[in-house]
Specification:
Blueprint (H helix, E strand, L loop, with lengths): L3 E7 L5 E6 L5 E7 L3 H10 L3 E7 L4 H8 L5 E5 L5 H4 L6 H14 L11 H33 L13 H9 L4 H32 L3 H6 L6 H12 L8 H7 L8 E2 L2 E2 L11 H16 L5 H13 L2 H22 L5 H14 L1
Parallel strand pairs: 1-4, 4-5
Antiparallel strand pairs: 1-2, 2-3, 6-7
Helix pairs in contact: 5-7, 5-9, 9-11, 11-13, 12-13
């Protein structure tokens, strides 16, 4: 019978460390190597037996897991925020950290991070996140341009006026200082490049997303549309990874903390900050868009019912955001089209049970 080996890997941009422990927790070997596919595969194959590997989530984790998957029994990527023994320790050393990862793996004291083995879906997520990054860049640059214009005494009442073709020319013409005008003109040119790249990324995202029937299905949900449907599929990856809708809520930073000791609550209840911010963001955008719809829909009714029950607009909005995510997850799991009437009946049955 082959022995079980617990291998912790600390990945760095210049140096990687690997430490192996046996079933008793004794260190049976260690390796130091530069990052690279060949070096990673060699390190994984160095230890014989039923080898399990634990990596911390980071920039190199997905790539490294793909390099060594198949060479070992199992590769697990864990949440580094849960490893207080490592990140809160005053003694910081790569080899020590790798040894601690091996021990955490042996004891099962880690929180696994989902890693899709579907390379197409992983690529789709990269494309979606690139679009999101460009979108954030153009927002920040617009804020910077307006700040620069205000320094020169150029203030527009409309927030979009400085970014129309006519408004841009007018704003630049009102900047008296030549060098300030050249700097702001350069920022406008940079903005044009970002907007062009964002539009290209958007088209690529839609073209890639068109491969998945679920994207076409989810975009018909009130308030969702094409961009939010792509974002939901990219971040969720697999609807069956969540045992319940509450797990999805917590993953989307919409779960409620419930910390207790000796039967008494510790602090006030609040939203759990752990999870994926973009999912919370897309649920808020879908909520705002659904409320603006002229035709009445499920989410408008959910908001009104929750507002009547809680008498709190924020709680009613958060409940509706949770409902939006639940509907999207259910549609994807069951492969069913959105029907406002049927979803409303289901919502009524759930409310009656609660």
């Amino acid at each position: 019978m082959s022995k079980r080996v617990y291998l912790g890997m600390d990945l760095g941009s210049t140096v990687c460390e690997a430490v192996a422990r046996d079933e008793a927790g004794k260190i049976i070997g260690s390796l130091k190597f530069p990052p690279g596919e060949r070096e990673l595969r060699r390190a994984a194959a160095h230890f014989k037996g039923e080898v399990q590997v634990l990596l911390e989530e980071g920039e190199l984790a997905h790539w490294a897991a793909g390099c060594i998957r198949g060479l070992v029994q199992e590769v697990i990527v864990c949440d580094p925020k849960r490893n207080a023994w490592i990140f809160k320790d005053s003694r910081k050393d790569d080899r020590v950290d790798a040894g601690k990862l091996a021990e955490i793996l042996r004891l099962g004291q880690y929180r696994a991070v989902y890693q899709s083995e579907d390379e197409d879906l992983a690529s789709f997520k990269k494309l979606v996140t690139w679009y999101e990054e460009l979108n954030e860049k153009q927002k920040r640059l617009k804020v910077q341009i307006k700040a620069r214009l205000r320094r020169e005494g150029v203030i527009e009442k409309s927030p979009t006026a400085p970014f129309t073709a006519e408004g841009r020319r007018g704003c630049l013409a009102r900047v008296e200082n030549r060098y300030s005008r050249e700097a702001i003109a350069g920022m406008y040119e940079l903005l044009d490049g970002i907007l062009e790249a964002r539009e290209k990324a958007r088209r690529s995202m839609f073209a890639f997303g068109g491969r998945y029937p679920v994207v076409r299905m989810l975009r018909e949900v009130p308030g969702v549309g094409g961009i939010l449907a792509c974002r939901f599929v990219a971040y969720v990856q697999d609807p069956h990874r969540f045992r319940s809708k509450r797990q999805l809520w917590r993953y989307a930073r919409l779960g409620i903390t419930d910390r207790r000791s000796d039967g008494k609550p510790l602090g006030r209840r609040r939203l759990d900050r752990s999870g994926v911010g973009p999912l919370k963001d897309l649920s808020r955008k879908a909520f705002d868009a659904a409320r603006r719809c002229k035709e009445e829909n499920l989410f408008q009714r959910t908001y009104r019912a929750s507002l009547t029950r809680t008498e709190d607009p924020v709680h009613a909005r958060l409940n509706t955001q949770r409902k939006i995510l639940s509907v999207l997850l259910s549609m994807w799991r069951n492969g069913t089209e959105y029907e406002d009437e049927n979803q409303g009946l289901k919502d009524g049955r759930e409310a009656a049970r609660n």
